[in-house]
Amino acid sequence: MPGRCAALAVDVRRRGGSARCRAARRARTGDPPQAGGGAVTLGFETRWVLVALASYAVVSTAASLLLAAGLRSVLARLVSRSPSPRTTADRILLLRLLPCLFGALCAVAASLAFALFEPRTHGEAVGWPFVCAATAGAVLLLLALGRGARSALASLAVGEVWSAGSPARTPAPLAAREVEADFPVVALSGLWRPRLVLARRVADACSEEEMQAVVAHEMAHLHAHDNVRQAVLTLCPDLFALLPAARVLERSWREAAERAADEAATAGDESRRLALASALVKVARLAVGPRAPVLPGSTLLRGEPIAERVRSLLSPPASDALDRSGVAGLGGSPRGAAGLALLAVSSALFAASRPELFELVEAAIRLGR
Hints:
Layout: H1 2-14, H2 19-28, E1 39-42, H3 44-69, H4 71-81, H5 85-117, E2 124-127, H6 128-163, E3 166-167, E4 176-179, E5 186-189, E6 195-199, H7 200-205, H8 208-223, H9 226-235, H10 244-266, H11 270-286, E7 298-299, H12 307-313, H13 326-330, H14 334-352, H15 355-366
Parallel strand pairs: 4-6
Antiparallel strand pairs: 1-2, 3-4, 5-6, 5-7
């Protein structure tokens, strides 16, 4: 029996042993590791939070850089292979979320592994690279909160302008007001209680049929929850949000969302398509000169060229068949999205249960110590 135990011990040592056993042996020593010149000793709870922040920062930053490097080619493939503008917008949104999703899953896995295997009896010295990575994660979150605060303040400003307006002449199934504005504003503002803001210049220039098409366009944004989707694009807490590529992706999403709203508002009806195209041309003419305000939410026009939208409205409507291919096809239904979420969470939990992940986390904590 002693010989068999010795053989088992040798086999465990050859395999590196379990992370839990090594952590337990370290806990029984009773003395915390001494901090070197470039390290600081922190308690379990602090290290646990820093592990989540650091792992999120590292993974989301790597994914952000990869996405930025290949963005134009990926966008071109998404647009060419999407059966409808709405599918294009959904796929672009999913693409934008990937750095955050990868970072969040890795943060969950790393922090769970740390909680499972790390002893809670004493502090441990951490290296400066680990602290810097965790600080970067905190900065990314704070910057996202700052963008959210600016968006909220802009929404409040729009609310004040809306309150000063008069009831819209065109009937709308939601609160709508006409306001005095130099730029021909047509905007759906707000997340929880969206309100329709119409510049009086637009109402004066457009016919009743054209205004009905404009209101239907904004209602299509409301039914698609485009304001919520745009807020998600703005609030993603990752490095990609700070790169020029983010503006390219957001502009591509807005173009796809506007074309999707055009299609939904006209429902394939030729007269509606002509009315909306005519309204777009009139609003674009009114927009020459005045500077477009920065408005949160969905707008009929932000001052961008409208030639492609008008050309699309004057052409046969795009098919809205559901595309089952690719990642967006898997997540294109509630069941598909739930399946992807379950697979991702299960993968994170499995990774957290592996001692190898804890050993990797420990190595990152000790780096530069």
